[in-house]
Amino acid sequence: MSIEHVSSSASNDWDRTGLPGWTYHNEALLELEMSELFSTHWQIAGHVSDVPKPGDYLTFDMGNERALIVRGQDNVLRAFHNLCRHRGSRVVADEKGSCKNALVCPFHGWVYNLDGTLRGPAQPRSYPTLDKNKFGLKPIEIEVWMGFIFLRFKPGPQGTVAEYLKPYEAEFAMHKCEKMLPAAGPFSGIVPVNWKSVRDVDNEGYHVAMAHPALHDLYGFTYSDEFYAPGRRVSKGTYGADSGHKWSVRNYAKLSKGRPGLPTERNGLWAYYGMFPNNVFILTPESAQFYQELPVDVGHSVVHGIVYHYPDESREEKLARYLTLRIDRETFAEDIQLSIWSNESMKSSGFDGFYLSDHERGVRLQHDELRALLPVMKLDRAPPGGEMAALNQQMLKVQKS
């Protein structure tokens, strides 16, 4: 897999424009994105340490889809649609929990085994004989990679997670992510923008020096990008014990002395790993985390993630992880404000589109990937909502011919 580095000298060999403004404010397009993008691409749902014992479960919601991940009595992780086969109720209502040896629907009491097969309906004499497999929970594609759990609701273009994330494998293996534990509960928040505006801000480091005082204080101009085409991007910044003037940054750099067993080049490094279309991992010497933005509606997104730590972390590592959280919290608030400004500008009569720097190539590559899958995004004007899906299908056929 080839790596493309950002050049230090500007060139005119690529189109610096981005997606047209209408694609950020169109309900018919969002419906198409949910069906043909989010449902067909892998989503991070959690980590094996979130469901460590038989009977432990985890849920994951995305748009109209509801998933349930459960560890069976045979210790195997399985994923199902979180839908009772009786009336469609959620079989599990909580985000996370544990059951002894079966899942019981809270609506009418249908009972499912941990492997998803139907154990029996409530008041079974009111039904004809039911096939335990046919009326079992419907399975969802699941894969575990480096300890992280991935789901995909429909078959899609990314292949297996292991194949798709092969360029990241060696670096993740150094951190032994599969051995980590949850640092706290999930963090999530609703932001008042289209999901693509969140991703646009996150896909480039050009704004770090100006918009993120804490991050810039930590690793200055050491920030760099690497691109593994298509749909994978790594951003890295390095720091030393003398880094930082801000309190959180200065004390983090002093406490972050390096993880025993972690190669020298990984200590003093924050690395961000993007996975198209909306997933990001962060690896630091003390922790690993993932986050993603998921559409709520055309003008709102939920940003969701979890932080994980080493089971034998030292006091210094724990304190450093706390300071990482402070820096991240400040950075997140700054990014949300930037995404709001960018998102609202696209409704203005004065908006003429993007003109991207070489340091924003990640934005362009994301947009190229979106246009390849949903070619209606190439249009300067939005087609009528009722024609969106059919027109996109026609354009895909022409694109492949």
CATH architecture of the largest domain: Alpha-Beta Complex
Beta fraction of the residues?
15-25%
Q: How are helices and strands ordered from N to C?
A: EHEEEEEEEEEEHHEEHHHEEHEEEEHHH
Question: What's the average pLDDT?
Answer: 94
Rg from C-alpha positions?
23 Å
Q: Could you list the spans in which at least 5 consecutive residues all have pLDDT below 50?
A: none
> Level of helix content?
25-40%
Tell me what the structure shows.
37% of the residues are buried. Strands 1, 12, 13, 14, 15, 16, 17, 18 and 19 form a 9-stranded antiparallel sheet that branches. The protein has a 4-stranded antiparallel sheet with strand order 5-4-3-6, with no helix packed on it. Strand 3 and strand 4 (65-71) form a beta hairpin. The protein has 10 helices and 19 strands. The chain has 401 residues and is an alpha+beta fold. Helix 4 (195-202) packs across helix 8 (315-345), helix 6 (213-219) runs parallel beside helix 7 and helix 7 crosses helix 8. It folds into 2 domains: 1-41 and 180-401, Naphthalene 1,2-dioxygenase Alpha Subunit, Chain A, domain 1 (Alpha-Beta Complex); 42-155, Rieske Iron-sulfur Protein (3-layer Sandwich), CATH 2.102.10. Helices cover 27% and strands 25% of the residues.
